[in-house]
Specification:
Two copies of one chain form a homodimer.
Chain A lengths: L3 E5 L6 H8 L3 H8 L7 H13 L6 H8 L3 E8 L4 H12 L1 H6 L2 E8 L4 H10 L6 E4 L5 H12 L3 E5 L10 E3 L3 H16 L4 E7 L5 H17 L3 E3 L3 E2 L4 H14 L3 E6 L4 H10 L7 E5 L3 H9 L4 E4 L2 H17 L5 H4 L4 E3 L6
Helix pairs in contact in A: 1-2, 1-3, 5-14, 7-8, 9-10, 11-12
The structure holds a DNA duplex (16 and 16 nucleotides).
DNA sequence: CTGTTAGCGCCTTCAT
DNA sequence: ATGAAGGCGCTAACAG
């Protein structure tokens, strides 16, 4: 019986064992383990060595139990009725039993995240009350300062969906929007195939960092790989259905040779309306973002050809896990927490 | 400041609180909590009611600590040098610190999973020694019996990558292969575009359940949505490079009008060789499975157009998490543990 | 600077 | 059928 066994992780030493081996007390090992002051340098060295030699891992369950007080995390989210954000909140809700069993309290804080001073004020108000904060952040100097202040106060901070790379946040939970735009471009180009013609881009606003990045990636690919397809100037629909429909309708009137359409943000219903009223919903290759009830239906109907998606459930859970790992001082499983750019077509709808 | 707060999970009751409220002792509550015998029916009812009324959640950390003995999980994996399986094993290795901190021991057991009696024997040998078993299973009556015996003995069992739906395994960690085949079909069809011609299918063996299912899904989509593309009879390459190259070379000789190619299993290097030697690596739309060093390179080179992938890291972690949740009696976050069918193209390579 | 000690909340014998 | 009591491994006072 060709059998071969290999064990991953087995050890079971305790703090006490380390203390004995190093010739010190429990408390001293604990101090070293948490880089707390009050230990002579060479004692530190001796203890660290013993820990390393034994590949000692403190038992998280014991540590958690001994802490006493529960951990509190805050999620600072946009106050408007954004379906994607609502999905994230819903998935947090699904975790409630999981959270309760670990004595973790998650609080949702709704704010106008598009107003830098309001958002910054909300962040300031959190100081000291939470072990960790996840925030859908606007990239603005005041917000950056707010984040940095929290970090300085010892709070763990992760940015969610929208990043502030220049801040000292511990982690970003979200996708690379430039790559997402490139992916959209490759799909539009490939799905259009041999045909030549024009490609339209509709964004919420080019002032939004994520939209701008997606457009950048999209244009990059179109220019370098599909030079036969002319890209029309970017339209703005403010992520609203009505406005999106109007600007697109006007565009369809002007150009009869549109073969592809990239919707960078929301306003999807408006896009679908404009396409069907122009009678072009089957001819134009239409790629957009996120899987919602609406995009799901459009994909099934064949109106939409592909959706670029970031998994909201994954983002919700990753944010909690990363905040928890940071708070505990545990390593982060980076491959697990990385948010992928999903290509969703009709047959692999989740 | 438009601010609104909402708390998810807050409680912090303990077993003792429940005991006092129900007018019984700690031990009795514990018995009820774990459906252990030795409690009068109406006491059970009273305690359960108190638990429900307070939405009481036992603290996992305390439970884990009190158990004393560590948990042992076994992963029964194919013994051959399969790159995909090696990836799963590597990701398990990456979790070792995480596992150690939770006093979980994971053991890899290499077996000839393609021989039903050998696999069944391996499973039998595990009885009683493990809290949970993950197995890459062949769908065969003897294997099914082996799985059921383990389940009956109280071991938690999950099937990994390859399922035995008729067994009583607690969970399947893997993708829906029919949907994966459909996704491949939709991609080949859409990427071929206007051109007409023939589509080739290369599988390892049609006797393998997952390969058969993928072919089924693929053919379904081709027939219903791309009737203009003729599907050639399925070739078999035994997942070997040499053989795959040979059978494809012969096919390319016979048919000058091949526009699409679906590689259902492994042997990818052979496929690439055959394509380039026939000078058709840029004209034929080539879709295959899994992201490996090789398929990654082929995607970047433009030889391969898309890879259908199941995330091996996700599968490894999901298997561990599900076994752990089952062992603890915790609910499973089904959306988290579901393995998605990933479409990977050049621009969204992970 | 270092050690001692009392829990954290639950599980598990062992009594009753 | 039920209860009492001792730990599991770590943290956090408090002593020295």
């Amino acid at each position: 019986m060709a059998e071969d066994t290999d064990t991953i992780a087995g050890a079971a030493l305790t703090l006490k064992d380390i203390a004995r081996q190093a010739g010190v007390s429990l408390a001293t090992v604990d101090r070293v383990l948490h880089n707390r002051p009050g230990v002579r340098p060479d004692t530190v060295r001796r203890v660290k060595e013993t820990i390393a030699r034994n590949a000692f891992q403190p038992h998280v369950a014991a540590a958690e139990l001994a802490r006493g007080r529960p951990r509190r995390f805050a999620f600072v989210m946009p106050s408007g009725p954004n379906p994607f954000m609502q999905q994230i909140e819903a998935y947090l809700g699904e975790m409630s039993a999981w959270l309760a069993a670990r004595r973790l309290a998650v609080e949702l804080i709704a704010t106008d995240v598009f107003d830098a001073s309001v958002l910054a004020a909300s962040l300031e108000a959190l100081a000291g009350d939470y072990d960790g904060v996840a925030v859908v952040a606007l990239d603005h100097p005041r917000v950056r300062a707010g984040i940095n202040d929290l970090v300085d106060a010892g709070t763990r901070v992760v940015t969610l969906v929208s990043d502030v790379p220049s801040s000292r946040r511990h982690h970003y939970i979200g996708i690379d929007n430039i790559a997402a735009g490139r992916t959209a471009g490759a799909l539009v180009g490939r799905l259009v195939g041999q045909k030549s013609g024009k490609v339209a881009i509709l964004a919420g606003s080019q002032g939004l960092r994520d939209h701008a990045e997606r457009i950048f990636g999209f244009s990059q690919v179109m220019a370098s790989e599909f030079p036969g397809l002319g890209v029309l100037p970017v339209l703005e629909g403010r992520d609203e259905d009505d406005r999106s429909e109007q600007v697109l309708a006007r565009l369809f009137d002007k150009h009869a040779d549109i073969v592809g359409l990239y919707n960078v943000g929301a306003g999807t219903q408006g896009v679908a309306n404009a396409l069907s009223e122009a009678g072009r919903d089957r001819q134009v290759v239409f790629v957009g973002h996120d899987v919602t009830v609406l995009t799901r239906r459009l994909l099934l109907q064949g109106v939409m050809d592909a959706a670029i998606s970031q998994n909201p459930g994954h983002e919700a859970r990753a944010a909690v896990r990363v905040l928890l790992a940071l708070a505990r001082g545990e390593p982060i499983l980076s491959e697990q927490e990385k948010i992928r750019i999903d290509i969703v077509m009709r047959d692999n709808l989740p």
